[in-house]
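Suppose you are handed a protein chain with no further information: no name, no annotation, nothing but its sequence. What can you learn? This example shows the usual starting point.
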Amino acid sequence: MYKIMSQVIIILIVANVLVSLKGFSDAAFFDRYKFQVQRILGGEKIRMLTSGFLHVDWLHLGFNMYALYLFGELAMRNFSVINFVLIYVASLLAGSMYSLYQHKRELYYSAVGASGAVSGVMFSAILLYPDKTYSFIFFPFIEFPAYVLGIGYLLYSIYGMKNQVGNIGHSAHLGGAIGGYLITLVLRPSVITNHTIMVGIMALIILGLFFFGDKLKLNK
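A reasonable first move is to predict its three-dimensional structure. Written in structure tokens, the prediction is:
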């Protein structure tokens, strides 16, 4: 079973690479399948899925695929093939839906990338293994517990969405993370009793986002 699950990760990575490569060399293909608010509201809902397999460049693609491999290998130990793919696809769509909600008045807003799906997989891994530690390129000698990473990620995504930090789809990251969080709790409710405080803190942040999310938008 573990071998099959590892193959699922590889298949997802290959799918992202092949579709992204096509998009790198074919501008019409890229434009046809990217996330664009006006086109989606006009009925092209498929873009909410296909945009998750396109990337703007090799760096964007490489970072997302590395994160998928890193967190996917951890999360998949707890799920069947079907449930793992469910988390991936549902998180991708959750990221697209939240982006559409946040940018519905910006008709020409567009985005691509697997970040929503990867964020969902990452949060699934964090909920399942909150005490696992990670270090980063910029802080190679400091290790952060996964639960700190998860809470920090939520807060930074909210901050980034409010202040439009960088050329990054923070709303897709946030929507994907929320999708992964919720689906993991449904599939593995034992996480709630095993890590009640962490789950509760994340729930408060997410609820706050839904109740006060409109106040995060910049007035221009």
